[in-house]
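Here comes a specimen:
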Amino acid sequence: MKVRRAGDPQRKYEEQTSCVQNLVKLLLLLPWHLLHLAVTIWYFGLDIAHMLQGYLISSGLLRNYKVQNLSSLRYLAIVVDSEEAHHTSWVVELLNWLLAIGVKHVCLYDMEGVLKESKEIILKKLDDARPWEVADERSLYMERKHMVLEFLSFSDGKEGVAKAASFLCSKYLKGGSGGEDQEPVFTEPEMTSALRAVGCGGPEPDLLLVYGPGRCHLGFPAWRLRYTEIVHMGSLKSMNYGAMIKSICKFTMVHQNYGS
């Protein structure tokens, strides 16, 4: 058995190699941590700036952000994180803000259906609102007396596709189209008509405001988002009247191109 002494050249070489490897790892990780710190500080600064701007808009000091024409915002959707959706008082306050500026058609969505379960509570707390089911869809956009609320969850999107597919297949089989080995091919207009036939169509939101940690629509029915502008608003507990006004103003001032 060989015993290495303190002055063994082999041991010194291994120690030096280990120190060099650790130094290289540190030098490689340092730029990544500096970049991560810089991005964090940047977004933190942006959040602070947006918060201050929101308070300035709320106080009326920034008069450029004032909702004057809501003709392009016919239908507004609000996506709320399911954990925050339990705070119905926050949701009601947000809806009252929308009522104050003249938004009349709103869709409330969360994945787990918390808002749908709180439907009666929300409607009772609002002085001038009624559910979408009792409104006439043909005259929906002409409604100006009441706020019309639609409540959706993730199950509505999943079940809606299943019902529409079943409806199309049954219609295809009854019609006797195609041969036995020919697979049915359905177009987008046919799918849209099927979704409306099973009661899962609904109007397409012009603007969708997302309240929650995720920067996505959290499973909102995709077939209703073809021309929808999506804006992430941050957490519902830190919602700000000025930030909401800013998002709506920016949407109403942008020219919309829908193609030919």
In short: The mean pLDDT is 79. The beta strands are 76-80, 105-109, 129-131, 147-152, 207-211, 229-234.
